[in-house]
Amino acid sequence: MPVLANRNAIITGASQGLGAAIAEAYVEAGANVLLCARNAEKLEETRARLADKAEPGRIIAACATDVSEEKAVAGLVEQALSLFGQVHILVNNAGIYGPKGLIEDVDWQQWAKAMEINLYGSILPCRQILPHLRKQKYGKIVQLSGGGATNPLPRLSAYAASKAAVVRFAETLAEETRDDHIDVNCIAPGALNTRMLDEVLDAGPEVIGQAFYQKMMKVKEKGGTPLTVGAGLAVYLASDASDGITGKLFSAQWDPWETMHEHKDEIAGNDIYTLRRIVPADRRLDWGERS
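RESULT FIELD:
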């Protein structure tokens, strides 16, 4: 049977790019899906395309939603429960780069809005669906992170700060929900050749910095990490194979996630695949402790 047969999923930011690729992979894996994004027209185009690929009887639905708005998210979850009866999977993919430039120069309202979409937009759906997941004693929550979570991104401070916060929230939520058999994990999908890459390049080196601009130009020239890689990891983290793996940040491009269940006991209860502070002893230096 397909690995997500009889599973019901909410996927945010699903009208294009990685979100659409995840939605397509979920449909191919047998899931019923409710797609969410702000642009209703693009969302419907994606829904119709995926519905054509789905087997008869499957539910491929869409709900235009701003995930940074609490009432809108409540309506999204209400629609999902009405459609499916049960929800097993939540994928929080919606995100933007936000304003580009030095922190003292960027528009503050745009900076704050990026935090609302990237961070609050991944927390609000969790808040709304958790009572249902706790009641059924099962659930899978997949959070989309990015390079901003693990590395400084000068001139993209809203994106970097929000993505780091998404990971720490996921680690915390994983502990809060462990006893209810709800797995919460994050995906770093790699450098993707999507509209967000074009947006950065259009800003130019004088805005985003010469070094980052050159790095992104190389990504554009080489094509970036295929969307199917991150989508494949999203399927894995929603499947039975990953049961019990929680509170982790996986790189779709670099980590051997296809066989991560073989190492479940080894990575449980420690800081492997997490965000942590590095001290001098971690780098074989002996001056980092107070005497």
